[in-house]
Amino acid sequence: MLDFLKENWSIIALVIVIIIAIAFMIPMAVYIAKYNSMKKKCSPYEENLDDVTKFLENKKMYLDAFAGQKECDEHKVDLEQCSKDKSECIATQEAAMKERDQSKQELETCMSGKEQCEQDKTIAIRNINNTSSAVSACNNEKAQIAASKLAVVNQLSQCNTDKQKCITDKTAALSAASNFKKDFDTCTLAKTTVQTNLNNCSSGLNTCNTNLTKCSITSKECEIKLESTPVPAPSNLVYKKISKAYGTAGLCADVANSLTGNGVQLVGWNCNGNANQLFGYDAASKLLFAKHSGKCLSSKDKKITQEDCVKTPEKQWEMIEANGIYQIVNKATATPLYMNYEGALAPGAKMIATPTSQTFKFI
């Protein structure tokens, strides 16, 4: 209705003038002069009304053009968002390819370990066969001793037979008996020596097996003791800040409140370069040292805390690097370091280990 009045304002004004004129036509003679005078006065305003109408039409065209420009700007924003989404998609695809390559490397390592296991199995079977051969040889020696004993018994029987035969010839019999006694003593002594040696061999074998078992147990105890012994940071270790590579800038890994005890959880905080934000990675031990406390980063139940530096898998980290950007993966859980704040990154974000990929840089 308002648009209609704006577009037909001049006509409406003219109708109003005519109505006013008709209202005054009865006293025409009286008001004719006043009518002419009023008409002269209204003429300039009618021209102004035409100008107002043109202004309103131009204003409508301007508003239409402004609306078109606004729509164009909205499409431009949509185009920029589409380009951003495309870049994020490409980054996600590249991260997925990296994870695929990592899985391939782990498979190759597993196959190599399987081959080594098969080789160890073959060696163990060979050792068992050698032991079985030694037992068989021992049994053969035992059978030979039994045969020797039987032979001695047979000789004794033959000796008694000869003794009976030699009774008739006392001198020959005594001489034969004397010689036989010597031979018999020598044989008995040899038999006793062989039996003693056999017993010593069996005892030595048992002692060897006992020592081997003790050695194996001691080796395992040694490995456990080494794993539980704290490792100091190398003297030449380089300490740097761990900053989030993409997304929310200016957040670094931070040991909360610069505490130095075990179990303190790490958070993301504004990068300031303080000692509780400096960390050094030792490639030999795969430990990640905190400079201010001398503790090491550890992953347990998804939480990232600082603990005593011992070479156990939950405190060891793999650095997967690409163009100076790192994915920091825990050896025990095979999950990467991640900065999380209930879905939104901000100072105070908890450092956790999760399958979700996130990258960092050392600055």
Counted beta strands: 12
Give the overall silhouette.
Answer: rod-shaped
The N- to C-terminal Cα distance equals 68 Å
CATH class of the largest domain: Mainly Beta
What percent of the residues sit in helical stretches (DSSP H or I)?
Answer: 55-70%
For the largest beta-sheet, the strand count, sense and barrel status come to: 6 strands, antiparallel
| Global mean pLDDT | 79
Structural domain count: 3
**SSE class:** alpha+beta
**What's the Cα radius of gyration?**
53 Å
What fold name stands as the CATH topology of the largest domain?
A: Trefoil (Acidic Fibroblast Growth Factor, subunit A)
Outline of this structure?
The chain is of the alpha+beta class. 60% of the residues lie in helices and 16% in strands.
Descriptive report:
This protein is α+β, with helices and mostly antiparallel strands and 363 residues long. The chain folds into 3 domains: 119 residues; 109 residues; 121 residues, Trefoil (Acidic Fibroblast Growth Factor, subunit A) (Trefoil). Helices cover 60% and strands 16% of the residues. It is built from 4 helices and 12 strands; from the N terminus they run H-H-H-H-E-E-E-E-E-E-E-E-E-E-E-E. The strands form 4 sheets. Strands 2, 3, 6, 7, 10 and 11 form a 6-stranded antiparallel sheet that branches. It has a two-stranded antiparallel ribbon with strand order 1-12. Strand 8 and strand 9 form a beta hairpin.
